[in-house]
Automatic annotation (TrEMBL):
Name this protein carries in UniProt: Coiled-coil domain-containing protein 27
InterPro entries: CC-FHA_domain (IPR052642)
UniProt keyword terms in alphabetical order: Coiled coil
Species this chain originates from: Marmota monax
Residue ranges of coiled coil: 72-99
Domain of life where this protein originates: Eukaryota
Source lineage: Eukaryota, Metazoa, Chordata, Craniata, Vertebrata
Amino acid sequence: MMGLIQKDNLVLRERVSELEAELTKRDLAIMELSTKVGELQTQTERDQDQGQRWQQLHEEWQSRNEMVRQAEQATRVALESAQSRLERLRSKIIQATFNVSGIKSLATEISDNHILEALQRIISERSDYYNQLKQKGVRVPPLQQSEIMLTKPKKVTSK
């Protein structure tokens, strides 16, 4: 009977040793898994932070894109306005140039070079007429702004 009890004790001690070894393995596996879970949580937090940064960058990009669109629209409006003003000025120049006596009216489209030549002719004729008047002794205002500035007396101011 004693032998059977010792044999049972030995079997039980072996079983306890096996269970302790298995418990040690499981504890080690739990620790490894806990470490892995911690790493995964850290990675998840990093991914979430990066996702938030990407979202912020995307929103910033959309905001800048909208500002660029608005600036582009404003630039287009300004360009159209400037083109309209330039075309009105061009039209007035053409009218002034070709409404001068001695210039024949053209039914065809007028080129810019033709307009320039006509303007140069008008300026030359005006300058010649101005010089003729000056030679005859007629007092006439100067032709150019720089001449006006040269002939005006300067006022002396006292301090």
